Every structure is written in structure tokens, then in C-alpha cells.
Amino acid sequence: MATLVIGRSPASETLIDGAEYEVVLTTRDEDIETVQRLRFEVFGSEPGFEASMAGVTDGRDADRFDEFCDHLIIRHKPSETIVGCYRILPPPGAIAAGGLYLATEFDLGALDHIRPETLEMGRACVHADHRSGGVLCLMWAGLLAYSDLRGIRYAMGAVSVPMQYEGYDRGATVRAVRELVDAKHRAEWTVTPRNRVEEITAAPASRRTFPPLVTGYLRMNAEILGAPSFDPVFDVADFPMIIDRTRFNVRYLERLQQAAGSL
């Protein structure tokens, strides 16, 4: 059974310690480099994302925000390898970085009043050999543990939807996601995209094309803050998403806790 552990060291602390996996919060340079290489491997092999890594020559997905973030990693204990990751930009890190990554894609003025109690999460990925539902739940359980420890109420970030999905017209999955969130998952605040997605005329795709993170976030009662922004580097539509810790789906939370206790 997994246990919650706090305070191994300032650079690396274990949040959840399970039989096969552990969730570790780290700022160590060697861990961050491993995470960047994992992101490159995962993003470079995902349908709809492959082209984004085509110009990378050093085998790493990295940007200027990495050094200001806490990195939540999933370590597979038997092999001692990092198999999953999230990066988290807490309020002090956002100040040091000169703002949020999300602010490069959206005007976030409508959220100024909640900035001190909001973290930004992003660059989530899991190695293909470890994509059980339990591992993904374990990542979210670690994120919740982090939020509790730091006194954070809101988590926000961009959830990416590929513009092109094999077998469908361009933008079909984006349209399907947008129609769903507009009908059922709109937030009370709205942010403005800096680079609006092109008009989509394709018929909406099947929900089976939704990225797992989209489905998971919506199950957690995440809400969408408005229209997506187009990211030409990754060729994705980034939907601005926010989760209020006080409105979290309790049943799903229990599943996360059970998952954390069984891995």
C-alpha cells in the first residue's frame, strides 16, 4: 500500500511511495534532463504530435520555463527509470519566470484575482509501456498531494488537441471537443486566445479520438476558459483549462486515492 511521505530534501521529495511506483517532486538537473528526454520520446511518437519534434537535434523537449518549475515524476521502482512526468509552475516560480507559459497563448487578465492561489501544470506524459489507467491516476494523485501541501486552490493549464487525427478531416477532433465543453464544461471566467484556431468546417470526430488527458480532466470537473489557441509548433489547439480544488469530483478523487494505494 502506498504511503504519503514528505520532505526528503529540498531538491527531491517523495509525495507517494508505492510498491512498484513512486511519485517524486524534483528540481534536480539530472532529473529534469531525463524528463526532457522522456517528453521528446513520447511527444515524438504520439499521433498528431510527431512533427513537433522533427526539428529537435538534442533529443530533448525543453523551454525556458523548465528551470522555474517543480517537476512531478513517476519513477518505476523495479527498473529505477522515470516513466511519467508533469511540470508544475507555482506562484513564486511564475513570478521568477516573468509570467505563466499559458500567458504566451492567452490574455489571462480575467484571472488576475486568483493568481496567488493558482499553479500552472503542463507537459504531462507517460511512457507507452506504462500507460495503465492507474499510472495516470497516480500522476493526478501526486498533483493533488502537491496542491494540498502548498495550499493551492486552482490548477490551470493548456490541454492540447491535435489538429490532425488519422482518418478524420483536419480539425474534426478539435471541433468535437469544443462542442462538448461549450455545452457542459464552460468556466465562469473567459480568457482570450492570442492566436485563434482557424475556422473548422469538418464534421466533429468520435470521442474515441479525444486525448486521454482531455477525458481525465473533464472527469475531475475541470472547466474550459474559452476558445482554444493554435500552437503552430505542435500543430495543436490548446484549450485553456482550470480545476477548482473545492469543486473536485469526489468519486473520482476516491479512485485516485485507491490507485495511489495499489501501485
From TrEMBL:
It comes from Tsukamurella pseudospumae. The keyword tRNA processing does not apply. The keyword Membrane does not apply. Gene3D superfamilies: 3.40.630.30. SUPFAM superfamilies: Acyl-CoA N-acyltransferases (Nat). Keywords: Acyltransferase, Lipid biosynthesis, Lipid metabolism, Transferase. GO terms for molecular function: acyltransferase activity. The lineage of its organism: Bacteria, Bacillati, Actinomycetota, Actinomycetes, Mycobacteriales. One of its GO terms (biological process) is lipid metabolic process. InterPro entries: Acyl_CoA_acyltransferase, Ornithine_N-alpha-AT. PANTHER family: GCN5-RELATED N-ACETYLTRANSFERASE (PTHR37323), L-ORNITHINE N(ALPHA)-ACYLTRANSFERASE (PTHR37323:SF1). Signal peptide: none annotated. This is Phosphohistidine phosphatase. Pathway: Lipid metabolism. It comes from the Bacteria.
